Amino acid sequence: MTYITIILNYIALLIISEAPEMALELRSSGKIYVVVGVLVIIFIGILTYLIHIDKKISKLEK
Questions:
Q1: CA 37 to chain centre
Q2: Which of 8, 32, 39, 60 could bridge to 26 as Cys pair (CB 3.0-4.6 Å)?
Q3: Closest CA to 38 of 25, 46, 3
Q4: 26, 46, 45: which is closest to 36 by C-alpha?
Q5: Whole-model pTM over 0.90
Q6: CA end-to-end span of the chain, whole Å?
Q7: Are 10 and 16 in contact (CB under 8 A)?
Q8: Burial state string for 8-22 with b = 16 or more CB within 10 A and e = fewer than 16
Q9: Residue 32 burial class via C-beta count within 10 angstroms: exposed 0-12, middle 13-18, buried 19 and up
Q10: How does pLDDT run across 19-48, given as a tens digit for each residue?
């Protein structure tokens, strides 16, 4: 169990160490707002879909 935690922490550190350079480049070109916007739209779509499915399941349970 601890080996998995150590491996996941190491992978997270590798990802974080490379992120600032990419984030600075995206922020300087203004594309970071496009990325954030797309992520928000995807999140809202998934949330809407889950609420819709929950309503259908609740209706079927009754």
A1: 12
A2: 32
A3: 46
A4: 26
A5: no
A6: 42
A7: no
A8: eeeeeeeeeeeeeee
A9: middle
A10: 567 667 777 788 888 888 999 999 999 999
